[in-house]
Amino acid sequence: MKSALKWDVIAKCGTTKARAAVLTLPHGPVNAPVFMPVGTQGTLKGITPEQIEGLGCQIMLNNTYHLGLRPGQELLDTCGGAHVFQGWNRNLLTDSGGFQMVSLLKLAEITEKGVQFESPHDGSLMLLTPEHSMSLQNSIGADIMMQLDDVVSSLTTGPRVEEAMWRSIRWLDRCIKAHKKPESQNLFAIIQGGLDPAMRKQCIEEMVKRDTPGYAIGGLSGGEEKDKFWRVVSQCTDLMPREKPIYCMGVGYAEDLVVCVALGVDMFDCVFPTRTARFGNALTATGTLSLRQAKYKDDFRPIEEGCDCIACKSYTRAYLYTIVTKETVGCHLISIHNTAYQLRLMRQVRESIIEDRFPQFIHKFFKDLFVEKSAYPEWAVNALKSVNVDLIQGEEQP
Amino acid sequence: MTSPLRFQIKQTSTKASGARESARCGTFTLSQSTTAGTDQQHVKRTIETPGCLMYSQKGAVPHLTPDNLRQQSFGGVNISLEQILQTDQPGSFSKWPETSPIPRFKGYKFTLSEYLRLQDLITFCDLRDYSYAAETFRHPTVPPAKKLASNTDYHAVLSTPKGIRQLTLDDYLKTVRHYRPDVVVALADTIAETTTPNEKRIRKSLERSLKWLDQILLERVGQDGTIADRRLEEEKKRRRERKEKKRNTVTAAKTAGEGQQDQEQDQGTEIPKEMDEEIYIEPIPTEPWTDVGLFAAVGGAHLEESRIWSAQETAKKEGVDGFVIDTLSLSALGKDARLKHVQTSLDHLPSDKPRLLYGLHAPEDVLEAVAMGIDLFDTSYPFQLTEDGKASLYYYGPRPAGQDKSNSKTLRSINLWDDEHGDKFVPILEGCGCYACKDNKHTRAYINHLLKTHEMLATVLLMGHNMYQYSQFFTLVRESIQDGTLQEKSTAFLATFGKEPVRTLEKHPNQIIVEAALQKRNQRLEGAEEGVVGAIDMGASTVNTPSLGAAVGVSAEDVEMEDANKSKKRHETEEAGEDGGAKDEVVEKKVKKTAAAESSSPL
């Protein structure tokens, strides 16, 4: 299949499966591993495009289903796509609307044809077929588009999972056929198969035959046990083509990012940092600060020492305590900080891979965040052990 | 005493024949651009007058982060004590650091400027949020201007986000000493009652305000301004003690069996000699704060004599750097009546000191006030427009080039909620240099979309635009004073744009629809919560379910993500961080309750 991207691996970790790369897309280069903030409705929560660029963000997400509702396909066609619409000149990635199948399950009816949604806003019906999803995504004009997949919750068991896996493959074929702009938009396939290794293997084999520009690991981050989650991720990265980017959808929390990079994942997205910001929660390398709490009333330190975002360069926790969740500015500041935090984390991860000291970075990261080894999440310890990093016995090398 | 403020009048406009024009252009600066107590200097902006201070809430200009804020060209910020003084302050000021904890400002004294990151802007600290002074304007989370508890001889009443606070002179002084704003307004008894005040009330307010002003002026130069108060307190205390003593003696006598007659006699004859003694109170030398500028409030409500008296008496006081002309007490009157009373005050104030006016801030009102000689305003007008989803299109003087297409109907503003903007891929105003309009970056269609999807970027863009347009307006007004075209352009402005429609608090129909849908979605979600959570039983994991709806910035998309999160669990909680996820949930639920409570009453 035609590809509108270039994937150049510039360094490989000598210990884990991690790699550092440059993903060149129509709207510019993206340093990988990369965390993509989520601007669902064509905006990143009160942050201007200039501010997002200023944070070093090279790619962000928009949501096809939501943009399809508002402003709608016609308007997007008129103005020339989502980049122009929101004044964002760097890269965009759109998911197909598939995830809404899980999140809006009560409102969705799934058949071989597609998914019928009842809009949560006005009850109107939208039939999302692979063809319609492609059409919408072509109108949105994102640099990376996701196939419409039949997503089931990772907690689902039984024949439904296999049904969804095969249907996703069939829908991938329909998507490829319906995709009108392969020269400027990259279609990614999404590997399904639930938590079943055999199914995952089968899905990968089939989808790889379709030779899309990149692949995503889908159907996870739905509340499944973390121990199962990492094993699926690791199996996938073993079997997926390594000369293409690998995207794990819906991940996530800081420790998830670090572990998945070690397992060989290149791209991530998650609403968590911007969403938790709006409730006054600031992410730092040593944990989350819930700035609404009265204990910050007299804490005159910046959110995080060494952070160069506008919040940390300007204000103390004490002042932020008075405005988070009360003034929109409070919201913006924490959103900016959390996005800065995630992007900085990935930058640091990438640098450490390039300098071949990623394992040391991992040790330090976990120590800063969890402090005591007894607090290290077991799944993370196991996952890292599988790629030769022993968090418990191994030592941080100087 | 030399003032830390410098106000230089560059030019007064030439009076057209018969016109009572005293408009003037000036510059308002700090005479020394230093932050108190250090050798380090911040270069402070100058405010060109007529000009504005930026309206703020809780110490921040609404919707503008520090970087976006500095794209505006206003030189100062108006901060109200009632918005920013915490319940445990001034007491808890002892917990403030001496110098800034922010690394790049190491060594700078940690005053209000540093705390709010306004070091390059003139910080003007007033008591109350006077956006009330405008007709129906108020911030949605602040209760309507109902009758507060009255000011008394001992304190002025503030309406804080946490409720009513009675601010004493003592607390006021401690706060000023600690905050060290560039300018502070003297504690005053500003009449905020909704009923028309009577003469007695007005006289009382002026007496109190002038007394406090005298005390503040003494304290400012390091003398003891509260000595008379303390003497009075001491007298009262002794009187109380004497009464107590007498009561005890009488009671003792009673129990000893003496008759009531004798008691009365005792009470009558025993006039203590101490009452005639002069009580000596040790004067307390105080720390001067001459580095802080002082403005005085000039009032008198609607009584001409009172207004004249207030202005004259206040004008006599040495050390006052400028005046705030009260209009809050005139809220019941129409604009023309209010302007008349403002004029009365101005007629009796020295012309070499700056005058600030709240509440008359629509462009045509500004023009009238400027013509009378007002120098400073605030930016509650652009904020007000932004909250309503409106964007300014008015211009002053000749129509700027390139704007014909944007504004062929010479509208003073457009409402971006209106459906007609939904497909207009043009900036709010062609040729406007604000960051929303510049290079046609953000379109009317996009802002309409942002409003409809309840996204916060809408107000960020609108605020940037409206503030920018307001500052452009003031720049052109200043130019017209200098070249003598103020009157003619003011007349033309009124003819072209008419008067600002009276602001109601009614929401735009589209806004009502969006918010109703959001509400319905919230309810639908909450109803389903038990069912969904019950279906997914994974033991000890925590579910991250932040509260919805009332928290700032929650959009429809957030609400939808809730469904996803119900099945999303974190088996590793945030235990390594400051909180467990469960605690988050509890706190977040509280946030929702608090936010809901805030909208109906003060916390």
From TrEMBL, chain A:
EC number of this enzyme: 2.4.2.64
GO BP term, pick one: tRNA modification
Domain tRNA-guanine(15) transglycosylase-like as annotated: residue spans: 16-368
Annotated residues for binding of Zn(2+): C307, C309, C312, H337
Cellular component per GO, a single term: cytosol
Binding site residues for substrate: D95, S96, G97, G98, F99, D149, Q192, G219
Cofactor: Zn(2+)
Enzyme class, first EC level, given as a word: transferase
Pfam families (alphabetical): TGT
Membrane-crossing segments per the record: none
PANTHER family reported in the protein's UniProt record: QUEUINE TRNA-RIBOSYLTRANSFERASE CATALYTIC SUBUNIT 1
Family of the protein in this entry: Belongs to the queuine tRNA-ribosyltransferase family.
Full protein name: Queuine tRNA-ribosyltransferase catalytic subunit 1
Organism the protein comes from: Linnemannia schmuckeri
Automatic annotation (TrEMBL), chain B:
Cofactor: Zn(2+)
Biased composition (Basic residues): 237-248
Record's subcellular location: Cytoplasm
GO cellular component, one term: cytoplasm
A GO molecular-function annotation: metal ion binding
Sequence ranges of Low complexity compositional bias: 594-603
Residues engaged in binding Zn(2+): C432, C434, C437, H465
Keywords, alphabetical: Cytoplasm, Metal-binding, tRNA processing, Zinc
Keyword Metal-binding in annotation: yes
Compositionally biased residues, Basic and acidic residues: 563-589
GO BP term (any one): tRNA modification
Listed InterPro entries: QTRTD1, Queuine_tRNA-ribosyltrfase, TGT-like_sf, tRNA_ribo_trans-like
Domain tRNA-guanine(15) transglycosylase-like, chain residue ranges per copy: 23-218, 293-497
Segments for region (Disordered): 232-274, 555-603
Record note on cofactor: Binds 1 zinc ion per subunit.
Assembly, per entry: Heterodimer of a catalytic subunit and an accessory subunit.
HAMAP family referenced in this protein's UniProt entry, alphabetically: QTRT2
Family per similarity comment: Belongs to the queuine tRNA-ribosyltransferase family. QTRT2 subfamily.
Its biological purpose: Non-catalytic subunit of the queuine tRNA-ribosyltransferase (TGT) that catalyzes the base-exchange of a guanine (G) residue with queuine (Q) at position 34 (anticodon wobble position) in tRNAs with GU(N) anticodons (tRNA-Asp, -Asn, -His and -Tyr), resulting in the hypermodified nucleoside queuosine (7-(((4,5-cis-dihydroxy-2-cyclopenten-1-yl)amino)methyl)-7-deazaguanosine).
Protein name: Queuine tRNA-ribosyltransferase accessory subunit 2
